[in-house]
Amino acid sequence: MPTARCYKRSAVTEGCAADIVKSWQLPGTKVLAVHQLVPELIDEMKGAQRVLFIDAGTNVEGTFQASIIEPMKSRRFFGHHETPANLLALVHELEGRAPNAWQVSIAVLSFSHGNEMTSKAQDHLHAALVWIRDFLAEPSCTKSA
Q1: Residue 73: exposed, middle, or buried by beta-carbon count in 10 A (0-12, 13-18, 19+)?
Q2: What residues does each domain of the chain span?
Q3: Continuous segment of H or E residues that includes residue 87
Q4: 4-137, CATH topology level
Q5: Is residue 131 within 8 Å of 67, Cβ to Cβ?
Q6: pTM of the full predicted structure?
């Protein structure tokens, strides 16, 4: 199985997704649960064939969205709020190549603290996890949402 890395950013749904994916203990898969995308993640991305970023958002249509991420350097300085596209661009700049990358955005209604995950959010998480498991089982990066 190709090497894959999973990253998550923040929120209850993402934390659950990263923890669940990590619990699968899939060979060739490394899961990092991070709350911010920082330049230091480049070291983890260098040897990967593909990278999967898991995020949650209130502006996601449907249960979740999966999309290909292309390297695209931003004009801003390094910081603790990087984008997946900028991290890929930095890896490409340093290594001459970047891993194939996807972002899975899971639909949520709110990021309020102290609230339990709603049954709707749990359904969205489950649907995304089915897609993620299939994606990680595939040897190529041709998966579509």
Answers
A1: middle
A2: 4-137
A3: helix 84-95
A4: Rossmann fold (3.40.50)
A5: no
A6: 0.80
